[in-house]
Amino acid sequence: MELAVFVRFHALPGRGDALALAIAEVVRRSREEPGCLTISGFHSIQDPDLYWIHSRWRDEAAFDLHAGLVHTVRFIATASALIDHPFQVSRSMAMSEGPRAGTDAAAFAAQHETDLVAFALERLEAVGATPSPSQVIEVVDNLKILQGHARATLAAAETDR
């Protein structure tokens, strides 16, 4: 399973430039590793001392190998002396918009329908309405239509990029 890794760095006062150079070097070297799908360094536009590395790895084993390589170990030692906190590494997996692998699609759809009905009832009750079953069905149908329009708009926006 693909692994995403987020690492946060807050530089000690006056050490941001040295940290930026160290990040640039480890990113360059890490990109050459066979298990690295992508890796980038980031610098906050709001806090001049805040940096991040985001990387994606083929799997956790590929990241574990990366963590033990000389350039990574050297970077950790260098960066540790340049930041004002302990290392903060988050190993993560991507969230999907649909059911997780192995989830029963019919059960997922039924839960989605239940969520829509609950949302419709909340909205109707918020305006003081006591809806009939047919009104709830009508609101749910309208929510499905709006949902379809939203998905189409998002898809069109993605195509335009």
Descriptive notes:
With 161 residues, the chain is α+β, with helices and mostly antiparallel strands. The protein has two domains: 90 residues, Alpha-Beta Plaits, CATH 3.30.70.100; 56 residues. It is 53% helix and 18% strand. Helix 1 runs antiparallel to helix 3. The protein is elongated, with a radius of gyration of 23 Å. The two termini are 28 Å apart.
What's the count of strands? 4
The CATH architecture of the largest domain can be named as 2-Layer Sandwich
CATH class of the largest domain equals Alpha Beta
Q: Structural class per helix/strand content? A: alpha+beta
Mean pLDDT: 82
Provide the spatial order of strands within the biggest beta sheet.
Answer: 2-3-1-4
| SSE pattern, N- to C-terminal | EHEEHHEHH
Radius of gyration: 23 Å
CATH topology of the largest domain: Alpha-Beta Plaits
Shape: elongated
Strand content: 15-25%
Assembly classification = single chain
Separation of the first and last Cα atoms: 28 Å
**SS field, number of helical segments:** 5
Q: Sheet with the most strands?
A: 4 strands, antiparallel
Task: Give the helix proportion (percent range).
Answer: 40-55%
Uncertain spans, ≥5 residues at pLDDT below 50? none
Q: Tell me the domain tally.
A: 2
Question: Summarize this, please?
Answer:
53% of the residues lie in helices and 18% in strands.
Name a few traits of the molecule.
single chain, Alpha-Beta Plaits, 161 residues, 53% helix, 4 strands, elongated, 2 domains
Lay out the secondary structure:
Layout: E1 3-10, H1 16-30, E2 36-43, E3 50-57, H2 60-68, H3 70-80, E4 88-92, H4 105-126, H5 133-160
Antiparallel strand pairs: 1-3, 1-4, 2-3
